[in-house]
Design brief:
With about 425 residues, the chain is mainly α. The chain has 15 helices and no strands. The chain has a single domain, classed as MFS general substrate transporter like domains (Growth Hormone, Chain: A, Up-down Bundle).
Length: about 425
């Protein structure tokens, strides 16, 4: 009996130990699965948020003639209406990091999404004053979203920053192309109501608000990196070169968005074909938006990539002005490849040139704040040149000047270093 008791004792201990450790083992194995699920949901949410950062631009541009006709808006007012959201991207980018520090980036981004949703919805009122006010409201929300997304990618996806940058850049381009491609069919679906077609784009924004709100409200504030002295960014030449590349590539992009169709129509293309050229150019951007950040991450530095993309864009734009129309689809594809790549590279450089997530948010605010203010001058000057000279050929000089500046800033921003890094003579 004693031996039996001794034998049964250990077996009882083993069984009780196994029984006790099973829940702990299951909990341990469940924790990584829950973490992966949260990470997947976060990544999906950021991509869907990015999708809603451009429909405000593409949806209005394709309906601008109808808006002008029904509201009595003149040419100068139309230029202001199309430039206003772009200008807001620059103006409202500056306070985004401070808001993120005060309320947390997740909750600040939620507020930005609400602004985008409400602003987009109010554009459907048809009132001219409200059209300007709601465009500014949506532009302010987009500005904050532009700034905060790179910082969240740097913070939560540091080991997969290139892949996530590619995906959310792809989503930005997808939002722009979707608005350009589907807004006119939506107008036909709504019995010719351009107001309903504009207001429709509040729907995807509203759905993302519902997805993001539980995550944002549950997020806990995180302390900023103590090593980040972001005030000196304004004295850092590399930061200004990143800003210049962002702003100048955006300037060429919005010249295309606002004036490519009129350029082609003046050269003899019908309005439908000119619209297809713009839509195809935006669609082609999707491919290079996805792959460029990964390619950039594998390069020793990004100087050659920035220079090559600039050349492709500039040659394509000049071809739209002067090359035979029979070759228009070749230049459409090349322009899309170049502009998709340059936009993705500009966003990737913000992440790659930053030492941590806090600096990423600050550099993003600087690059997109100053950059989009700079970018707003491009389409405005192109329109003024058209009015002064009676044709778009004079815009060629503007495009060349912007292209040279873009190449120079891209060459500097592409160097393998980070901002706030000590420079050795």
């Amino acid at each position: 009996m004693p031996s039996t008791a001794r034998a049964s004792g250990p077996r009882a201990d083993v069984r009780s130990g196994a029984t006790a450790s099973a829940p702990a083992s299951q909990a341990t194995s469940a924790a990584p699965a829950q973490t992966r699920a949260r990470q997947l949901l976060l990544g999906l949410s950021l991509i869907l948020i990015a999708f809603n950062l451009r429909p405000v631009f593409g949806s209005l541009s394709v309906l601008l003639p109808e808006v002008m006709k029904d509201t009595g808006l003149g040419a100068s007012g139309a230029s202001l209406l199309t430039t206003l959201p772009l200008l807001c991207l620059g103006i409202f980018a500056a306070p985004a990091p401070a808001l993120a520090r005060r309320f947390g980036p997740e909750r600040t981004l939620l507020g930005a999404l609400v602004l985008i949703c409400i602003g987009t919805l109010l554009r459907g009122t048809g009132d001219l004053t409200m059209l300007f006010a709601s465009s500014a409201m949506a532009g302010a929300g987009i500005a904050v979203g532009n700034v905060l997304l790179p910082g969240l990618v740097k913070r939560d996806f540091s080991s997969r920053a290139a892949m996530m940058t590619g995906l959310y850049t792809l989503a930005v381009c997808a939002g722009a192309s979707s608005a350009a491609a589907f807004t006119v069919p939506l107008e036909h679906l709504f019995d010719g109501s351009w107001t309903a077609a504009l207001a429709f784009w509040a729907l995807p924004a509203g759905l993302v608000v519902l997805l993001w709100a539980p995550q944002a409200l549950a997020a806990r504030p995180r302390p900023s990196a103590p090593s980040a002295h972001v005030g000196s960014l304004w004295r850092d030449p590399l930061a200004w070169q990143v800003t210049g590349f962002m702003g100048l590539q955006s300037s060429l992009a919005y010249i295309v968005m606002g004036w490519l169709s009129p350029i082609l129509r003046e050269r003899g293309l019908d309005s439908q074909t000119a619209g297809y050229v713009l839509a195809v150019s935006i669609l082609v951007q999707l491919g290079t938006c996805l792959v460029t950040p990964s390619v950039a991450a594998r390069c020793r530095d990004q100087r050659g990539l920035a220079l090559g993309l600039t050349v492709v864009i500039l040659v394509s734009l000049l071809a739209f002005l002067f090359a035979p129309l029979e070759s228009v689809w070749l230049w459409t594809v090349l322009l899309g490849l170049g502009q998709g790549g340059s936009f993705a590279l500009a966003l990737a450089l913000i992440v790659m040139r930053s030492p941590d997530a806090n600096v990423t948010a600050q550099l993003s605010a600087m690059a997109q704040g100053c950059g989009y203010v700079l970018a707003s001058a491009g389409p405005l000057i192109a329109g003024l040149l058209r009015g002064w000279t009676g044709g778009f050929e004079s815009s060629a000089a503007l495009m060349v000047v912007i292209g040279i500046g873009m190449a120079w800033s891209g060459w500097g921003a592409g160097r393998r270093m980070t901002v706030l890094q000590p420079r050795h003579p």
